[in-house]
Amino acid sequence: MSKYEIGKSIEDVKAESGDIKIHKMSSNENPFGPSPKAVEAIKSTFDELHYYPPRDDSKTTQALAKHFGRGLTASNFTTGNGAVDLINLLENAMFKEGESNSIVICPPCFGSYAATAKLKGAKVIEHSLDAETFDIDSAGIANAITEDTRLVYVCNPNNPTGTYFDQEALMKILDSIPENVTLVYDEVYYHFATEFEMPDAIQCVLNKRNIVILHSFSKSYGLAGMRMGYAIAKEEIIEKLRKRKLSFQNDSISMAAMQAGLADKAFLDKVINNNTEQRAWLRDQLTDLGIKFWPSQSNFICFQAPKGKLASEIVSRLLPYGVMVRAAFYLPNHVRVSIGQPESNQQFIKAMSEIITKLDGEEK
Ligand SMILES: Cc1ncc(COP(=O)(O)O)c(C=O)c1O
Question: Can you tell me which atom of ligand 1 is nearest the CA of 218?
């Protein structure tokens, strides 16, 4: 499997391809930008930036508890500087000092799980998704666990494959892993799963199971540049995470943006509706072009590089069209395209169509 590589920035691409219109479809960002209400809230903090932020995130966790309801309280939430910060905090909280530690991941998956664990000297045990379907081996994950395993990471819908699993699979995983191992259920793309009934992981938290749900403001809320995410878990786990946080871990701008973003239902609906419609349109277009792709309930689609090409070649061939996509990490022949607004998706399909014609010509 190829390794996780950091994606290019717009500046990198402009430096290589000139000052063309860029369709950034490489990092699963929000094609509508940030929530306007969040931007207003951010601006309203500017005059008070000389004051320290509130010492803790209690206002935000109260807002989150109110938002989700169902008997969750502020003590079931803690915030971080993006979900990556919470992954780091989780490892700090669960790894045992002076002992060996390991995590289990299900590649191809988000790279930060392994990266942060390795920084702490932990072993990373890989229990891969099915090589053809990218289905999770819910029945077999427990077999990968060793005595020093502290965390098992699963992602639903998964990045970079877009594939997803149901309630039965989640319960199989949770019921089969030992009580001293915490299941990290990364659900940062959950809003986009509009055509599939996602597992009810919150009920697992309410049932005091050993699970931590990760959510982010980087995707559906369009606030990736601000670094905001949160964990939902039973009180004992949240308490362990909180103890490891720095004083003033969350700045006042982020906390204002989080609360305003959360309340902006109209913006969220617009984002999700576009994603559902455009995902269906892209599926049809990819089918017409004869490109193999995997079912996605996320804001991106994973497809096979046509004509047996390497993903990196397709990524490069799309750049002159201003279309930025990513080689799907761990997978040398798979490409991940984020779903944009119609104009970007049309440019991507037009470019792919021309690239396939050129590849056909080169084969002759
Ligand atoms: C599966 C997954 N988890 C976590 C993250 C990190 O989210 P955040 O931007 O909140 O740190 C990402 C970001 O791309 C992701 O794809």
Answer: 9
